[in-house]
Amino acid sequence: MTIPAIATTPTEWDEPSGLAPRGTVVVLTGRGETPASYQRFGRRLAADAYRVRVVEVDLDDVASARAAVAALLSDTPEPRVLVGSDTGATLAASLAGELDLVDGVVLAGLALPGSARDGDWDDELEARTACPTHRRILSEDTGFTRGALARPVPSGWSLRVPAKPVLVLHGSADPVTAAAAAFEPFRGVTTARLREVSGGRHDVLNDVSHRAVAANVVLFLESLRLGRDLPAIVVDVQG
Fold this sequence. Notes:
Elements lengths: L11 E2 L9 E6 L10 H9 L2 E6 L6 H12 L6 E6 L1 H12 L5 E5 L12 H8 L3 H9 L25 E6 L7 H5 L8 E6 L12 H17 L13
């Protein structure tokens, strides 16, 4: 008798067969999240030939997450970019400054001191996303920790603005961290690109505008391949 394998959530996606990898993306999860939240995002970036890996961040064991990131970045295609959501974004900003192998960072739905949200499950879903598919994924994910947004950002954490190219993506309707607060530390930073998602909520990588958000991430990655000053690839022309 053949015993069926236990289904597990993928944590990695490679470039399509026959294509050379265009870079490496390591995704750091936020409070309560598991890799299940990033299946759609991972597949989309991999389709554009980026090698994607997900690291689940335990706020009680950040050292393990750091070690996992360092191991994943070793001997991988450049550019090497960290993508973080919520507290994963806060951690990604810190690791970008600590790890020489990191070439750039994407911060989505950044969590700052005071970025916490109490409420029941319906309230948490409202705060996180308006996307019905992502709501279903969160609701059906047995590994997801409900109520995790009520946990404060760990004491002693402070946002470190990395001296590396950074893309900050934040929803204009994020009730966990105000968009103005998320953008403020990066204003005037020449290697920072700030993008506000109209109507976006906290899980901005997985909200209703996830396609446009992923496209902006790919544009950032493609610009980074051309140089640390993030040269424009597509520019407006006056008609």
